[in-house]
């Protein structure tokens, strides 16, 4: 794990409020939270008032960061923020700020000025990545806000003696009075393997503020009220005159987002996989940097030379992209020396919760390579499959919902031929999202649990106690998988597992001193892509047509027309098999923990590991390795450390 204390490229905020107590205890609590935010920046600011204290950490990397001086105060209001606004100039114009001064005002100052003018209504107009806290010293009321899609993390804790919030989870359990009992529902969701709530954490007394949410806490009533000001499930449609206008509008929006990401004098890097999403992002970024006479660093996951698994290696596709843009500087990464399960205890102490991302070893290797090559901003194509290159046979039903039966039949037949998938299989996939609305199927509880939740290392007792099966089915229905256009895409975007994955990857980047940006996870871009008619998503038997159309002349035809998709970590299962000794030792240690054995089915993990023969590990992708072995081992270690009082020791 990278050592702390190096220059950081992100920012974070925190605050503590006590109903009673000495000022010294308040300062100590803020010190604890600020120390936990050391990954989020070297510059520290703080503000103290009666019964409250606010803090923020930041590192200057983007050009507008040098305008920041927090906290920002205006009248009775005090603000701390972690914000990078896309529409700062437009927001300043709406506030009546003279054009010559618009680029001289920090994002945090704009937020507070806009809040004073419009209050919560301003959230409807904000664009970008942000979370912020506003304390009203007169009303003694705190307001917390998180951006539409949850790009910036924010956690909070409420206990009888006070309230606290932070950009990092791991500092909050260290505060006196916080309820740190294990939340069994959250553990079951983690093992499920499908998270069913986007606000839960492993601790009963700590919650995450969901995306698109604003929360208000009053010192007088000591109650927290939260509401959504925006949700993917109800995001508005953007109507454009013609279907062909959508690819053009999407490209224009992406170019705006990339220009914002590149607004820095530091090095810029891209995680380039060779697929449609990352290749198009890398090409558009390279064009912008080329106009400035700058290089673009790329890092690509490729197969080790001795790998005996899948034949698909992304190197030919990556080479084709790099050959088209001479300012791209490619780096090839195999992560041969990385371990999936080594240093698990250290990582858990640092994060304060079990990780969701099974491919973190490759993410870390890619980010480390870019960081060592001089990058401080790293762009990735995360969520591309859910946003601009969404591909699901359910889109065929969208033609029917629009009364285009002939088009649905024609595209169904063309997709079956193009992807070499039987028409019956294609129909089964198209109807699969509606399974949650069908009557409950017969069978015993383990069978129904496996059918609904997938392979899992959760014990049946824990699944029963937490009503995991019922809560998962409720999530599927809440996701909006009803007969209406775009339902499946919305449900996929809104799934809580993506929120946790984003938080983990961003924290990993912060530990390396990187600002990780996912430009495709943008509110306006999401609304555009959700509004695209099905003929834009599927065209002439080719899925992912939206990004294919805007990629004309941008990426090589070899990449633009490919129908295969490479694995991010192709030898993942072989690595799991190689680390069988580490896994076995971890399970033996977990077996001595009463809490771990109550929640995690250790025998099931052993069974899955025994099934990972050399042939299976090399040639087949199975969810057992990801959902049973990876999550089971991580959760068991987390619970063992918690029960032994070691989770926050030396973190």
Structural features, described:
The protein has 651 residues and is α+β, with helices and mostly antiparallel strands. It has 27 helices and 17 strands. It has a 6-stranded antiparallel beta sheet with strand order 2-3-1-9-8-10, covered by helices on one side. A 6-stranded antiparallel beta sheet has the order 4-5-6-7-11-12. A 5-stranded parallel beta sheet has the order 15-14-13-16-17, with helices on both faces. Helix 7 links the parallel strand 14 and strand 15. Helix 8 (344-351) packs across helix 27 and helix 25 (602-610) runs antiparallel to helix 27. The radius of gyration is 24 Å and the shape is globular. The chain starts with 10 loop residues before the first strand and ends in an 8-residue tail after the last helix. The model is unreliable at 1-9 (pLDDT under 50).
Global mean pLDDT = 87
The radius of gyration computed from the alpha-carbon positions, rounded to a whole number of angstroms, is 24 Å
Low-pLDDT ranges: 1-9
Chain oligomer state: single chain
Distance, first to last CA: 12 Å
| Biggest β-sheet description | 6 strands, antiparallel
Strand order of the largest sheet: 2-3-1-9-8-10
Structural class: alpha+beta
Coarse morphology? globular
Continuous helix count: 27
Number of DSSP strands?
A: 17
Q: Estimate the helix proportion, in percent.
A: 40-55%
Q: What share of residues are in beta strands? A: 15-25%
């Amino acid at each position: 794990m990278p050592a702390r204390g190096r220059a950081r490229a992100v920012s974070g905020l925190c605050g503590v409020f006590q109903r009673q107590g000495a000022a010294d205890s308040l300062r100590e609590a803020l010190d604890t939270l600020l120390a936990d935010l050391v990954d989020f920046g070297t510059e520290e600011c703080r503000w103290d008032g009666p019964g409250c204290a606010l803090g923020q950490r930041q590192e200057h990397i983007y050009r507008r960061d040098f305008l920041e001086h927090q906290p920002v105060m205006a009248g009775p209001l005090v603000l701390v923020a972690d914000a990078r606004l896309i529409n700062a100039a437009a927001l300043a114009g709406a506030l009546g700020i003279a054009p010559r001064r618009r680029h001289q005002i920090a994002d945090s100052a704009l937020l507070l000025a806009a809040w004073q003018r419009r209050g919560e209504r301003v959230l409807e107009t904000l664009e970008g990545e942000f979370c912020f806290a506003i304390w009203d010293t007169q009303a003694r009321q705190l307001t917390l806000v998180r951006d539409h899609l949850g790009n910036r993390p924010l956690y909070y804790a409420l206990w009888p003696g006070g309230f606290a919030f932070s950009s990092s989870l791991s500092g909050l359990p260290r505060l006196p009075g916080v309820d740190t009992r294990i939340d069994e529902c959250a553990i079951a969701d983690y093992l499920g393997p499908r998270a069913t709530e986007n606000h839960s954490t492993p601790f009963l007394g700590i919650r995450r503020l969901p995306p698109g949410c604003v929360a208000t806490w009053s010192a007088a009533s000591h109650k927290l009220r939260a509401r959504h000001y925006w949700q993917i499930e109800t995001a508005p449609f953007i109507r454009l005159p013609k279907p062909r206008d959508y690819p053009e509008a999407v490209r224009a929006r992406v170019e705006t987002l990339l220009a914002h990401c590149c607004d820095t004098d530091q090095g810029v890097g891209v995680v380039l996989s060779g697929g449609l999403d990352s290749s198009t992002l890398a090409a558009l970024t390279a064009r912008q940097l080329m106009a400035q006479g700058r290089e673009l660093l790329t890092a690509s996951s490729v197969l080790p030379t001795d790998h005996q698994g899948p034949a698909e290696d992304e190197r030919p596709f990556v080479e084709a992209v790099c050959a088209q843009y001479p300012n791209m500087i490619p780096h090839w990464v195999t992560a041969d020396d990385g371990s999936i399960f080594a240093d698990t205890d250290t990582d858990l102490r640092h994060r304060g919760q079990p990780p969701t991302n099974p491919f973190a070893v490759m993410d870390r290797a890619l980010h480390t390579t870019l960081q060592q090559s001089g990058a401080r901003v790293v762009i990735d194509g995360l969520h591309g499959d859910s946003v601009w290159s969404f591909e699901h046979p359910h889109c065929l039903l969208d033609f029917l919902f629009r009364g285009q039966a002939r088009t649905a039949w024609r595209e169904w037949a063309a997709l079956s031929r193009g992807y070499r998938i039987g028409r019956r299989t294609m129909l089964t996939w198209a109807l699969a999202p509606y399974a949650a609305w069908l009557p409950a199927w017969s069978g015993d509880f383990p069978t129904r649990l496996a059918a609904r939740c997938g392979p899992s290392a959760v014990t049946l007792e824990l699944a029963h106690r937490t009503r995991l099966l019922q809560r998962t089915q409720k999530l599927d229905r809440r996701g909006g998988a009803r007969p209406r256009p775009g339902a499946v895409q919305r449900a996929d975007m809104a799934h809580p597992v993506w929120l946790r994955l984003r938080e983990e990857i961003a924290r990993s980047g912060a530990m390396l001193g990187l600002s990780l940006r996912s430009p495709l996870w943008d509110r306006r871009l999401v609304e555009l892509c959700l509004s695209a008619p099905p003929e834009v998503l599927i065209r002439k038997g080719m899925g992912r047509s939206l990004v294919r159309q805007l990629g004309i002349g941008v990426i090589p035809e070899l990449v633009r027309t490919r129908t295969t998709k490479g694995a991010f970590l192709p030898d993942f299962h072989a690595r799991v098999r190689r680390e069988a000794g580490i896994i076995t030792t971890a399970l033996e240690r977990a077996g001595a923990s009463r809490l771990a054995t109550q929640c995690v089915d250790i025998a099931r993990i052993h069974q899955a590991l025994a099934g990972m023969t050399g042939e299976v590990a090399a040639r087949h992708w199975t969810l057992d390795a990801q959902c049973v072995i990876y999550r089971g081992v991580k959760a068991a270690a987390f619970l063992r450390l918690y029960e032994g009082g070691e989770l926050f020791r030396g973190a």
